[in-house]
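Researcher: Next sequence.
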Amino acid sequence: MKWITRERPKIDRIACPWLIKNFVDKEAEFIYVPFSEVLDKAKQLDAIPFDIPNVEFTHYEEQCTFDYIVKKYGIDDPAILIMADIVRGADTDRHDIAKESAGLWAISAGLSHNITDDHKLLETGMVLYDAMYSWATHLYKQKHLQNSPFESLLHEVYNKFLKEKKTTKKKTPTWVNDLKAIIQDQIDTQFTFDLKKISNDLEMNPSYLSREFSKYFEDLNFGDYVRKLRIEKAINLIQNSTYPLTEIAYMTGFSDQSHFTRIFKQSTGKNPSSYRKNAQKSNPDTKSK
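Model: Next structure:
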C-alpha cells in the first residue's frame, strides 16, 4: 500500500512510516509531496494520505497521527506505548509529556536541517526509531550512570544537592510575570497562542520554557493553563453578559462552538447553555443586562 504526506518530515511523518513498516504493512511505500498536492496525488496514486488535516490518519484532539495508528490497528506492544508518549510530546511541543520528547525534537530538527532529500531523511530516521524501540523494549529503566560506582556516587551527591535546593524558597523568575502578562493580553485580544513566538518574545529556549512552565503555573502545562483561563473568561461572560454562546466561543479563542462546548463541559461538568440557565436562575438581574 502507498502512503502519502507533505514534504520535509520531522517527527510524526517519520515516526508513522516506521510504525507502519514494522506493525502494519512491511511493503508500505511512502511518498512526500508539497502540502497543496497531497490529496490530488493520493487519488492519482491510490495512496493513503496521512498527517494532514481532514483525513482519517491525522491528529485528534491532543493526540498525533502516531497515536491514531496505534489505536486504529490495536498495537499493544508496551515499547510502542512508551514511544507514543515521546512522539506526541515532541510533535506537539509538549515536552512535559515525556522527558525524552525534547531530545527527539532536537535530533529530528537537526536531521531535517542536514538532510534535504526526504527519502534519505526517512531512511536515516528509520534507524533512529529502531534504536528508540530497542531502548523502550530493553533499556527503558536503565540509567546511564548505574554501571559506574564513581559516577553513581557523584550522581547521588548531585541528586541530594538538588533535593536540598528545592526545599529552600525560590524567588519567582522575572519571566514568569512577563509570561502571565503576555498570556492575559492574548486571552483578552483573542490572539492565537504560539509557544515558540512567546519564547522568542521572552528570549528563552522553547524547550526550557515548556519544561519549566508547570512549576509556576498551577502544575499545569501550557495548553491546559491557557484553556483554564479561556474557560474562566467564558464563565464570566456567560454570567455577566447577554452575548450569544457562539460569540462567547469566538471571544474566548475557541475555533468553533462544538469545541468550546466540549472543553467547557470537561471543565465545569455542564454545557454552556445549561450553565447559563443556572446562572440566570441564581441571578435574575443577568437577563436584563
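Model: The chain has two domains: 2-139, 175-288. The first strand starts at residue 2 and ends at 6.
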